[in-house]
Write a structure and sequence with these properties.
- This protein starts with 5 loop residues before the first helix and ends with a strand.
- An 8-stranded parallel sheet has the order 1-2-3-4-5-6-7-8. A 4-stranded antiparallel sheet has the order 9-10-11-14, with helices on one face.
- The chain has a domain of 283 residues: Aldolase class I (TIM Barrel).
- The longest helix has 24 residues.
- The protein is of the alpha/beta class and 438 residues long.
- The radius of gyration is 35 Å and the shape is globular.
- 33% of the residues are buried.
Length: 438
């Protein structure tokens, strides 16, 4: 079909309007002439005559032509795929599963490609990828330092600041670096089909205490510059992953001590993401296997969990070990202690725990991780003997974070996970216990 020239369309419309004006004038001039009688209809209408509406007058400005492309509604963000509610159960996640053949437990979130295989048996599973965001350019360090020195961080001696693996620390105050990290995150998530990403080491290079990196050759980062740098990075990645989950780790989120040093800042920056990863819940991975936090620092970790999880934010916790030669009974103590401590502070419906003994999945299907304790009924309380207690729908949880053994009268009968019915228990130092109603 031939497309008419827009100019000729306007000319035709103008001619049509002039013809209408002329017709109106002609009819006005004929008002005095005698009128012929109307022809009689064979089927008379109930209405004898219908008076025609007045003809429209020509407007000074012609009606605009319709646009070639219709205006589209603004794009909408697809809902994020969120993990299932963990209120009445011990929520679990893992960043260590590499094969479905070596894993026999149940998890709600998995970091790594094996999650796509596990989804065959768990349709609700959330798949995550991971990315360190504080170092890079390990093989191109010299070239980057020469061509783009403002992409990297330097120590007080003007030497390139390095991560433990030897890669240069990135200066996330630089907009180009932030955009590259955002582009990397977008490719990792969308190209491979993940539901979200765990960002590890957010801001880690900016708060080293021993040799603090500097932005220029002589000027150290200020607190405000550090905060602005982390916020700028998170905003860049958020813009690249609008409909995907973002979990942030490191910085002020790694444990209760770090969080307490920057409470309002950590809460505000976490609002740019969908959740946080508490990477050092109860212990640093490299600390001694029998090195427990003081009661005060244990309480900071538990209270931090209670605070950060209460608004429904996704919270991932990891109690991890670097050592591979930890005694079996020590690992068992840590497992019970950390699960009970997790339950002591869990407030939100989307909190998920990982016990990681140097990457081993030995305890992945342990009964303590599937204990049917139910939902919490109240906040924890501290008993007179310094043991902490929390009541759940199906039982109670006890934690002794002190360095002394304690005996507890339960005030009734409860059943241990091994099936024993007890009315009182003796808890060794730094232990946790889940007791069910008989």
């Amino acid at each position: 079909m031939a497309i008419q020239n827009p100019k000729s369309k306007i000319q035709n419309r103008a001619a049509h309007l002039l013809a209408l004006v002329g017709l109106a004038a002609l009819m006005a001039g004929c008002e005095g002439l005698p009128q012929s009688a109307p022809a009689e209809s064979a089927f008379p209408s109930p209405v004898a005559f219908v008076t025609a509406a007045p003809l429209p007058e020509a407007t000074a400005t012609p009606t605009p032509e319709p646009t070639v492309e219709p205006t589209l509604p603004p794009p909408t963000v697809a809902p994020k795929r969120s993990p299932i509610d963990s209120t009445a159960a011990i929520g679990l996640w893992s960043s260590r599963i590499t094969s479905t053949q070596t894993f026999t437990g149940v998890v709600d979130l998995v970091q790594g490609p094996v999650g796509f295989d596990l989804r065959n048996t768990n349709l609700a599973l959330v798949t995550l990828t991971g990315r360190q965001v504080y170092y890079g350019y390990a093989e191109l360090a010299a070239q980057v330092a020469e061509e783009h020195p403002d992409w990297l961080l330097y120590d007080k001696n003007r030497k390139m600041a390095l991560a433990p693996n030897g890669a240069p620390l990135l200066n996330i105050r630089n907009e180009e670096i932030r955009q590259q990290l955002a582009d990397d995150a977008r490719r990792l998530v969308y190209d491979q089909g993940y539901d979200g990403i765990v960002l590890e080491g957010v801001g880690a290079g900016l708060i080293r205490s021993a040799t603090p990196p500097v932005y220029t050759g002589t000027t150290a980062f200020t607190e405000q510059q550090r905060r602005d740098a982390v916020e700028g990075l998170l905003r860049s990645i958020r813009a690249a992953l609008l409909d995907k989950l973002i979990i942030v780790g490191g910085y002020a989120w790694e444990d209760g001590v770090a969080f307490n040093a920057r409470v309002s800042e950590a809460q505000e920056l976490a609002s740019l993401a969908d959740g946080v990863h508490i990477t050092q819940f109860l212990r640093a991975p490299y600390s001694g296997t029998l090195e427990f936090k003081s009661e005060a620092n244990w309480k900071r970790d538990v209270d931090y969990l209670a605070s950060i999880s209460r608004d429904g934010r996704i919270v991932l916790l990891t109690t991890a070990f670097d050592a591979t030669d930890v005694a079996a009974d020590t690992l068992r103590q840590w497992l019970n202690y950390s699960v009970a401590s997790y339950l002591m502070g869990k407030n939100g419906p989307r909190t998920y725990f990982q016990f990681d003994p140097a990457g081993s999945l030995e305890f992945a299907a342990d009964p303590v991780l599937s204990a049917p304790i139910g939902a919490p009924l109240e906040a924890y309380t501290k008993l007179d003997n310094d043991v902490y207690r929390r009541v759940f729908a199906n039982g109670i949880v006890l934690v002794n974070p002190t360095s002394k053994a304690q005996e507890i009268e339960l005030g009734g009968e409860y059943r241990t996970l091994s099936g024993d019915v007890v009315q009182k228990v003796t808890m060794s130092a730094n232990t946790g216990l889940i007791l069910l109603k008989p």
